[in-house]
FG-GAP repeat protein (Mucilaginibacter myungsuensis), 271 residues
Amino acid sequence: MRLGYLGFLVMFIWGCGDTGKQKPTVKNSAIQTVEAAKPDTSITDISVDVTEFPNDTVYPARILTEGDFHNDEVSPKDSKLLWMGVFRTDTGYCVAPCKIMVSKTRDVVLDYEAGPETGWAVKTDQKDTSILLIGGLKDLARRTVIPLLKDTVIFINKQTRFNYKNTSYTIYARAQKGKPNGNDGPTRNYQIWIEAVIDQKLYKQLLASSAQTDYEMLLIFAGDIDGDGIPDLIINTSGHENTVQPTLYLSKPAAQGQLLKVMGLHTIVGC
């Protein structure tokens, strides 16, 4: 079963905030119509086993979402960090400072009814719906963010293009479908790439890779979160049925020759 980011959290976690608000329509000349995913004949299947990426154990930022989590997925010390959030408001999207509250709650998967509560509940002090919570970064500031892409599945051998500030960006995936003998099975060697030409220079960067996945990864949000004129990304980099892994990519701290840098991720297990 393939689930969107919020849909997965509803089924496998136990709460993901208020998703009942109507999504606003944002109009801006910087946005052009996103192309529907089309077959890309220039992308071929790969046969060399890839490594898991992102794969670091320490990142510059602490990443969270609102909801209820297992004991090892959240720390009570998280509430002491400086937090910014990407929020959906009544009029659009924004980056704004926030406080988070971490409290004990019953883990409906692991806790006995009469036993102690081992889960953690994460909430913010904001009325708006949070897309992602970013802890420990000092360089983010309050700003309005134009949503360039939302809840977009990154299909294999297809591509999605969008424009921002007169630059065209292409995101695509490539992989081997099924088992090595050609039968149906998990997808092998799944990779997500982004390409763009800026100042007549081609940038091509690997965003995520997995040796084996159950389904395609999901681009949760694309927009200029850090305010440098280059789109930033939030991607669910888990391709596994029972796991969500929202991952933040920012452009401002990216190394020379790169478009984006992985700033942090949060691995959430359902059952």
Summary: The chain has one domain: 5-15+31-268.
